Amino acid sequence: MIKAKAIDLGFDLAAIAPIGPSPDYERYARWIEAGYAGEMGYLVRHAPLKADPRLLLPAAQSLILVALNYAHPVDAALRADPSRGQIAAYALGNDYHDIMRAALIELDGWLRAQTGRSTHGRAFVDSAPVLERSWAMQAGLGFIGKNACLINPGQGSFFFLGGLLVPEALAYDEPPEELPVSGSRLKVETDVISTFDLQPSPANPAWQFADDRIGTCGACTRCLDICPTGALVSPWELDARLCISYLTIELRGAIPLELRPRLGNWVFGCDLCQDVCPWNRDAPPASHPRLQPEPDRLAPPLLELLALDRDSFARRFRGSAVKRAKWEGFMRNVCVAAGNWGDPAAAELLTFHLNESPEPIASHAAWALAQLRGDAGRPALVEPS
Prior knowledge:
Layout: H1 2-8, E1 13-18, H2 25-33, H3 41-45, E2 62-69, H4 76-80, E3 86-87, H5 96-115, E4 122-124, H6 132-138, E5 143-144, E6 150-151, E7 159-166, E8 177-178, E9 206-208, E10 214-216, H7 222-226, E11 232-234, E12 237-238, H8 244-250, E13 266-268, H9 272-275, H10 302-306, H11 310-316, H12 326-341, H13 347-356, H14 361-371, H15 378-381
Parallel strand pairs: 3-13
Antiparallel strand pairs: 1-2, 2-7, 4-7, 5-6, 8-9, 9-10, 11-12
Helix pairs in contact: 12-14, 13-14
């Protein structure tokens, strides 16, 4: 009944897990220890709290997990055009934090009315130290793919995760069962993974869900092969310090020189490892009205983006997750994309940023000017005698 209410509130998937020590916590602790979090110090500071959700809500007995689809097909010609900036699909509509948090609070209110509870649950959307992805797999919402994303066999991986910690003991969903590595090859009734090597092995595990669907990456390595920066250092292992999403959103200083050419024309986030995933081939598009793409965010021309000042940036991306990068970070990213484009048409705007914008925009504009074809940026870089 509560899962049906979650769907009524706009979520695409919902599942419930009993509270206990967090699944997969040891792996997460090793990931932190390896330094893969980069400058995301909050992940390090809050790591101990992720060991058990009861550290956040001692009375919690259940964790309601919800997923909201944000998939948006992007025209291949727009994606391939180097004169346009690419924005990750999740940021094309309104900021999902506001949408999901409001719905989760309403869900908690509905449950309180049903049970007579006077206290509030704990709703979170990227706002609490909870291993949402691991808990979502524990609740049967999907399996973790080699691209480190949660993949639902019916919905793919383009969805947001959120949760609600509550003190009620509810009816719980079953986690997927890992299939044995011996025996006959799996029989899977779907074209999505018909090209995979479906023999389960320690290197390529497979899971069976409560509805008998099979989830696996098989021997597929499309996501690892396409990552321009090598952020997927091995299957299921992401070094955030190399990830384009981290570099264009979380990193506040200079983007390492050796990585700049590999960013291509991504100016906020990256979808490459999800775009190539076979599970997303037939994934349904987002249906939530507030997550539909804003036209001026679909591969906007780099020259338009280079011309944005603080006020016009705030207006253009009002209500969007893009504002997380702030104007300085976003313009830094746009300068890198312009350098990778290499067209002399960007010289005038890059020169303006070189001379008038603060760091780190100015230094990235200088780098971009040096990349322009035909030495078009050289006059701006040579001091007058």
